[in-house]
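Appendix B, record 7
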Amino acid sequence: MTCFPLYLMRHGETALAGRMVGHLDCDVLTSGVADCARQAAGLDVERIVASDLMRARRSAEAVGRTAIDPRWRELDFGAWDGCAASELPSDALGRFWDDPDANPPPGGERWSALVARVAEAIADLPPLPTLIVTHGGPMRAALHHLCGFSLAQCWAFDLPCASLLSLSVWDGDVRTAQITGLRSCAA
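Structure tokens (predicted):
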């Protein structure tokens, strides 16, 4: 069984901070790109992969040559995409946060679908030191899949823009991981 480092980084800040931005393809701020480049400085990776959404792709390209994988996209918030939480019905939003699989946003994606596509993307990674530049949802889905975290444990992580999650992944019949570090941009 081999072990390899896997780094998951959330894209840099966008002009839509504070909104539910899923598949909406908004750009990343120049300062957000710089934050991601600083976070990745010194990482010894052989491969960089990014979501196909512009905010993740541009953040990753500031670090180095990037392969694009749409399976690392954010959860699809459907009709809620681009909305602030204050603009949404509080009862529906509460049900979503309590159980995003049973109560997805209208026209949106279920949590289990996000976990399935992230698990597939993880299974397809070669066992090389890898940086994935993605979104908060897929980072949480990876923790659920690799570390066995419950939904409540996944939501407990604060993953601000440009945060970097470091994992050691054991590559066997079933891939498992251990968190080795979490660093926000301010750290």
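Remarks on this record: The mean pLDDT is 94. The radius of gyration is 16 Å.
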